[in-house]
Amino acid sequence: MQTNDTNDVPRNGDGPELDVNPPAIQRVAVTFDINGATRSFDIEPWTTLLDLLRETCGLTGTHKGCDHGQCGACTAIVGGQRINTCLALAAVYDGASITTIEGLAQGGTLHPMQQAFIDHDAFQCGYCTPGQICSAVALLDEGELHSRDEIREAMSGNLCRCGAYVNIVAAIEQVAGLRDRAGERDSQSAQSQAQSHAPSHPQGHPPKGARA
Ligand code: FES
Ligand code: FES
């Protein structure tokens, strides 16, 4: 091989010839049930479910946030489980049933979780909201939410940059049937806090001569 005199780096044109006609990419045939409709596609093997939903199906309610499995904005329900669709290769899930935020309302009636998010003002910009709602719906279907702490833990993969967490948890509590108990607990806790902070004397100061 000919090299430069100075540093032994191959000169242009001296290396192996590049194949400028690589073999055609083998596409993959997949079929899904998406929000109740059977749909088939011929996709490139590296297509993520997120890109399939957004770019091919036009279901843009599933949002792309980090695209790295860190934020939960892309959450959809696949085979009954919530997944980050940005990390899911569509070909791997061939044949699965997929529910996106667009598929939750039935006949013009919002899903109870969607309604609860409205009732509790559980969003500001709304970017995280479809992922939050899909995540919460799948969690409820798993029947694993029995307390506020469990909700917080289970929802910790869904980030909200607007910080609407308190209202998000309240919305999920409502649909999980925890809201009344949580409300009672909150009011008991508020009462006991109010009592513990109340001045021990009506004027807030002990009468003269009394011990503090
Ligand atoms: S976009 Fe998928 S986790 Fe952030
Ligand atoms: S409502 Fe804005 S990111 Fe959650």
UniProtKB/TrEMBL annotation:
<dbReference type="Pfam" id="PF00111">
    <property type="entry name" value="Fer2"/>
</dbReference>
<dbReference type="GO" id="GO:0016903">
    <property type="term" value="F:oxidoreductase activity, acting on the aldehyde or oxo group of donors"/>
</dbReference>
<protein>
    <submittedName>
        <fullName>Xanthine dehydrogenase YagT iron-sulfur-binding subunit</fullName>
    </submittedName>
</protein>
<dbReference type="InterPro" id="IPR002888">
    <property type="entry name" value="2Fe-2S-bd"/>
</dbReference>
<keyword id="KW-0411">Iron-sulfur</keyword>
<dbReference type="GO" id="GO:0046872">
    <property type="term" value="F:metal ion binding"/>
</dbReference>
<dbReference type="InterPro" id="IPR001041">
    <property type="entry name" value="2Fe-2S_ferredoxin-type"/>
</dbReference>
<dbReference type="InterPro" id="IPR052914">
    <property type="entry name" value="Aldehyde_Oxdr_Iron-Sulfur"/>
</dbReference>
<dbReference type="InterPro" id="IPR036010">
    <property type="entry name" value="2Fe-2S_ferredoxin-like_sf"/>
</dbReference>
<dbReference type="InterPro" id="IPR006058">
    <property type="entry name" value="2Fe2S_fd_BS"/>
</dbReference>
<keyword id="KW-0408">Iron</keyword>
<keyword id="KW-0479">Metal-binding</keyword>
<feature type="region of interest" description="Disordered">
    <location>
        <begin position="180"/>
        <end position="212"/>
    </location>
</feature>
<dbReference type="InterPro" id="IPR012675">
    <property type="entry name" value="Beta-grasp_dom_sf"/>
</dbReference>
<feature type="domain" description="2Fe-2S ferredoxin-type">
    <location>
        <begin position="28"/>
        <end position="104"/>
    </location>
</feature>
<dbReference type="GO" id="GO:0051537">
    <property type="term" value="F:2 iron, 2 sulfur cluster binding"/>
</dbReference>
<keyword id="KW-0001">2Fe-2S</keyword>
<dbReference type="InterPro" id="IPR036884">
    <property type="entry name" value="2Fe-2S-bd_dom_sf"/>
</dbReference>
<feature type="compositionally biased region" description="Low complexity">
    <location>
        <begin position="188"/>
        <end position="203"/>
    </location>
</feature>
<feature type="region of interest" description="Disordered">
    <location>
        <begin position="1"/>
        <end position="21"/>
    </location>
</feature>
<keyword id="KW-0560">Oxidoreductase</keyword>
<dbReference type="Pfam" id="PF01799">
    <property type="entry name" value="Fer2_2"/>
</dbReference>
